[in-house]
Amino acid sequence: MDSAPATMKLESSWVQDKLFLGMTWNDYLRSQFTKFNAVVAIILLVGIPVIIYRLVFGLGPSTNLSDNNPWGIWIGFDMLCGVALAAGGFVIGTAVHIFGMKEYSFLFRPAVLTGFLGYLFAIIALTFDLGRYYRLPYPMFVSWGVTSVLFLVAWHVALYLSCQFVEWCPAIFEWLNMKKARKIFIKATLGATIFGVCLSMLHQSALGSIFLLMPEKLHPLWYSDYIPLFFFMSAVVGGIAMTIIESSLSHRIFSKQIKNHDPEHLDRVTLGLGKAASVTLFAYFFMKVIGLAHGATWAYLDSPYGYLYLVEVLGFVLAPALIFMYAVQNNLVNWVRNCAIFTVLGIIFNRLNHSIIAFNWHLPLDERYYPHWMEVVLSVTVITIGILTFQWIMNRMPILYEHPDYEPENH
Amino acid sequence: MDTSRRDFIRVLTGLGVTASLGGVGTARADSGLLPGYPNQFGVLVDTTVCIGCRRCEWACKEWNKLPNQKTLREYERDQSVFQKVRRTHDDTYTVVNRFENPRDASKPIYVKKQCMHCYEPGCASSCFVKAFTKRPIGPVTYDASLCVGCRYCMAACPFDIPAYQYYNPWTPEVTKCTFCFDRISQAGQIPACVSICPVETMTFGKRTELIDLARKKIRDNPGRYVNQVYGENEVGGTSWLYLSAVPFDKIGFRTDLGNVPIPTMSKPFLSLVSPVFIVVPALAMGFYSFKKRRDQIEKDELKKALEKKEAK
Fold first, then answer.
1. What is the ipTM of this complex?
2. Least crowded by CB within 10 Å, which of A69, A108, A364, B29?
3. Whether B280 and A197 lie within 8 Å, measured CB to CB
4. Do A150 and B168 touch (CB under 8 A)?
């Protein structure tokens, strides 16, 4: 008789503790009235009806896609940029767990979380692009089109999402206080990381290889036999740059969570990441030059598309490589941070060049694609929901800090 | 090489394990280098004959029960459509376009456009659910019951043929010419467009014989044609073939496609898939063990040094 109210109380305190950050329902609700949430509310108020409109009325009325331009920003931006910029989980995972760079280990959990959510929301955005989104599992369970690069992408992205979930699980189980489950997943981390490296190498490059089938549509300066390598290298750069941005932002926004926050340690690590970004960018730049020589496409450089290409390769690859180098040599941490933002913009520019700007370049201007406003709103909405999810998890799980009850990870 | 073995090899290539089976069988040739199904049908289109009556467009819509059908008379009368070069759409599997004749301005050139039915179709190799099939008798057919709607096939087609039902919200399909697969599967039947043509612009038959015919026409009528059969080698060869009086790029064809089949473009990449899964884990585990051993040695040495100090 007495036990019923007791469990009720226990449950409500569990809910309070885990979901409402230890506050009562009313206090929690009141704490949500912030300027940030007001902006979010406006975006969702416009965005969610747009999503419903897309699902009910189809691609025709909600996009500018056409028979000549079958892919728009949901592929070119949400999918290509989303996946490239979510490479942080795999880059940091390799550094920490395979190369044993222990001083970067505090970046592992936030990077894995960012990676996991990046992939998840890229897939969610992709779903809206598919004509029959309810058939999303078809390439896994119904019919295998093994000659398709997209088949590889579908499988690898799905498997990699699972890998990142495994890597993230210890944090979930610490939050839920489940010690045995946590231990199992800590042991699985190394395996998941190695498997994740293979998957990442392949699907990051596969996203570029999609364009290998379109030599007649993609401008010769961007079409190259090296597309797989270019996409992989730039994704590594994207992963490093996003980790720099994400770590400096979350250490500012969620600084209350970290008890013994050591800004100098973060600065040192940021400089290290800047160095890695610089080296990778230089390598990527030289590969780009070799790509020009290999394809013998020098002559195209002196044309409008050539100037665009030079802006991309000199302005967004070589320039940040030099800035990173200069900043690291002179200990200019904020330069590294700003340069990371610049680098990310460059990668977005590169992916949009492949998928939209230099794609179908032979068509007259009035047959070219530009996004419909609903395509933009839907993308912004999906990204906003992604950020909300990230924030929700950061406020609850031990991502930035070490849970006081647990030993640091070791395998 | 029969169909099933060919498919089997293709499946293996996709998974990246052909290398280990290289010795099996007699042929080691890339499927792109094979001459294709020997008995496939084709159509030879002689663009010097076409009068632009657009009856083929009507017949195509009629047979495939496509929307926005008009009367045959309206097709013949409506000249306004020729002001723009058109392409295929979800309600139109074939279109006839008009081009200026650089030789004789009073005689415009009419060119029919539809799926070329490639030997090695880009659409089929791009499809991640295998919704496209190259039939041994020639047609490349599409199975809507598998299609997820990613539209990669539309991007991968070098001739810009597949179209999409963008305004169908729940069950949109890719649409394209079927080469009247349902008709030509039966002996003696020919495609709807070919059968209605009043001036015999199109000849239906075995592709190998059509190439002989095309070559003979070029030989027997000096000056009438340019010395090229479009589709003989383009992207590895297509079932539909064209003859022209003027260079093909003057009448809406792309002459920069090359002779390499589209699927061949992504094969080197696909062949890397399984090696990555073998080489990378081995290297990673090697590196990891190396690092662990180094750490252990460091620890042991530190311990020894401390013990020595204590002993003193």
1. 0.90
2. A364
3. yes
4. no
User: What is the distance in angstroms between the Cα of B156 and the nearest Cα belonging to chain A?
Assistant: 6
Residue B169 or B15, more confident? B169
| pLDDT at B168 exceeding the cut of 50 | yes
Distance from CA of B184 to the nearest CA of A (A): 27
Read off the pLDDT band of B29 (50, 70, 90): very low
Asked if the structure places residue A25 within a domain, the reply is no
| Model pLDDT for residues A110-140, shown as the tens digit of each residue | 999 999 999 999 999 999 999 999 999 999 9
pLDDT of residue A410: 52
* CA angle B46–B261–B269, rounded 5-degree value: 165
- Among A174, A197, A199, A198, which Cα is nearest to A185's? A174
| Residue ranges making up the domain that contains A128 | 38-394
Residues 143-172 of A with CB under 8 A from B: 143-154
* pLDDT tens digits for range A219-267: 999 999 999 999 999 999 999 999 999 999 988 888 888 777 788 889 9
Q: How far is A94 from chain B (nearest CA, A)?
A: 9
* Alpha helices (H) in A176-262, listed in sequence order: 179-209, 227-253
Whether A408 is in a domain gets the answer no
Is residue A328 helix, strand or coil? helix
Condensed to tens digits (0 to 9), the pLDDT of residues A281-329 reads: 999 999 999 999 999 999 999 999 999 999 999 999 999 999 999 999 9
CATH code where residue A330 lies: 1.20.1630.10
Domain count, chain A: 1
The dihedrals phi and psi of A75, each to the nearest 5 degrees, come to -90, -50
Of the candidates B81, B57, B262, B229, the residue with the CA atom closest to the CA atom of residue B154: B262
pLDDT digits (tens, 9 = 90+) for A337-388: 999 999 999 999 999 999 999 999 999 999 999 999 999 999 999 999 999 9
A307 contact B CB<8A: no
What is the rounded CA–CA span in Å between residue A246 and residue A91? 14
pTM to 2 decimals?
0.90
Which amino acid, A185? F
The pair of three-digit structure tokens given for residue A375, joined into one six-digit string? 């395509």
CB contact under 8 A, A131 and B148: yes
Q: Which of A299-303, B75-79, B213-217 has the lowest mean pLDDT?
A: B75-79
Sign of the four-CA dihedral A178, A179, A181, A186: positive
3-class DSSP assignment, residue B141: strand
Q: Which of A259-268, A345-354, B97-106, B124-133 has the lowest mean pLDDT?
A: A259-268
Contact in structure between A351 and A231 (CB atoms under 8 Å): no
- Residue of B160, B172, B257 with shortest CB distance to A58: B172
Spatial contact of A109 and A402, defined as CB atoms under 8 Å apart: no
A–B CB contacts, 8 A cutoff, strictly below:
175
Q: Which of A138, A152, A206 sits opposite B146 (nearest CB)?
A: A138
Instruction: Choose the closest CB to B280 out of A150, A154, A201.
Output: A201
- Mind telling me how many Å the CA of B198 is from chain A's nearest CA? 31
In a domain, A123, yes or no: yes
* CB within 8 Å of chain B, chain A residues 341-400: none
Q: Two tokens at B33?
A: 């280098």
The CA distances from residue B294 to A97, A193, B123, B288, B300, in Å, are: 15, 21, 52, 10, 10
Per-window interface: A 213-232 vs B, CB < 8 A: 213-217, 225, 228
**Residues facing A323 on adjacent strands:** none
Kindly state whether residue A30 falls inside one of the protein's structural domains.
Answer: no
| Minimal CA separation from A251 to chain B, in Å | 30
Predicted local confidence at residue A20, as pLDDT: 77
